[in-house]
């Protein structure tokens, strides 16, 4: 199932608060009561056309976005680093999360802001020390993320909190797919229609079970937490006034505008 979070637009019957729904194959959304990550997928009888709603980030993590660095060999090489022997992790604040078609704001203090297409894991339950063979039990689904990065500040600071942590630097969406199984699907990023990153999920150095096992050996994950699984080679600058699209075969495409601060 594809789970969307949205505001209904001018449909007064449904109010204006964000709602969750299941995207049906006929282009309609069946509304879910409550938050599916916390209370399960409970469909109601109400439906609305997808074209009439405004999609939002499918989840706003209540605690954290955990990210994996250098998880594709060709990207580690383009950053001048070696392939790590265990996952490198860092955090983005949950306040960086935005949704489909929202605007990435280029901060004044940076002269170089890059795209990074990544598969994102959405955690479905509180978990710690998850064995690799139990990892699928704690995953609610998958979505697409753009790990937007102020590359000059990342390099200048020697650690990544500022370069990765600005508001709007974590677009996710357009939905959570609860049936997606990562394999050799194509992963791409395009700036104004020009493909800049192209790889396959199977190019990852550390796979999903290894990542979740490693992260939960360090910290407890909560429902709604997200793990970004790293980006392939081809990272490069966004363009103010332009659009960036990140896509994963079988999952969809997430597009955002870019504007100056
Ligand atoms: Mg990244």
TrEMBL record:
Residues 1-58 form the Rv2993c-like N-terminal domain. Keywords: Metal-binding. The keyword Metal-binding applies. Residues 64-258 form the Fumarylacetoacetase-like C-terminal domain. GO terms for biological process: carboxylic acid metabolic process. Pfam families: FAA_hydrolase, Rv2993c-like_N. GO terms for molecular function: acetylpyruvate hydrolase activity; isomerase activity; metal ion binding. The keyword DNA repair does not apply. PANTHER family: ACYLPYRUVASE (PTHR11820), ACYLPYRUVASE FAHD1, MITOCHONDRIAL (PTHR11820:SF7). This is Unannotated protein.
């Amino acid at each position: 199932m594809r789970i969307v979070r949205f505001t209904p637009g001018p449909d007064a019957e449904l109010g204006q608060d964000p709602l969750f729904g299941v995207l049906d194959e006929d282009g309609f959304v069946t509304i879910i009561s409550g938050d599916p990550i916390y209370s399960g997928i409970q469909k109601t009888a109400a439906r609305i056309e997808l074209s009439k709603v405004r999609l939002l980030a499918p989840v706003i993590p209540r605690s954290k976005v955990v990210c994996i660095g250098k998880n594709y060999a060709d990207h580690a090489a383009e950053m001048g680093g070696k392939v790590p022997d265990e996952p490198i992790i860092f955090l983005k604040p949950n306040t960086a999360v935005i949704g489909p078609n929202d605007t990435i704001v280029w901060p004044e203090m940076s002269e170089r802001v890059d795209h990074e297409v990544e598969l994102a894991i959405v955690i479905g339950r509180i978990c710690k020390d998850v064995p690799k063979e139990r990892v699928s039990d704690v995953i609610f689904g998958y979505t697409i993320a753009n790990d937007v990065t102020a590359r000059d500040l990342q390099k200048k600071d020697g650690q990544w909190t500022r370069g990765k942590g600005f508001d709007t630097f974590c677009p996710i969406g357009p939905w959570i797919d609860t049936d997606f199984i990562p394999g050799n699907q194509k992963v791409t990023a395009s700036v104004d229609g020009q493909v800049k990153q192209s790889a396959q999920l199977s190019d990852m150095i550390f796979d999903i079970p290894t990542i979740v096992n490693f992260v939960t050996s360090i910290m407890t994950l909560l429902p709604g937490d997200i793990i970004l699984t790293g980006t392939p080679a081809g990272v490069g600058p966004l363009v103010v006034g332009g659009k960036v699209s990140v896509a994963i075969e079988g999952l969809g495409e997430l597009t955002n505008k870019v504007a100056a601060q």
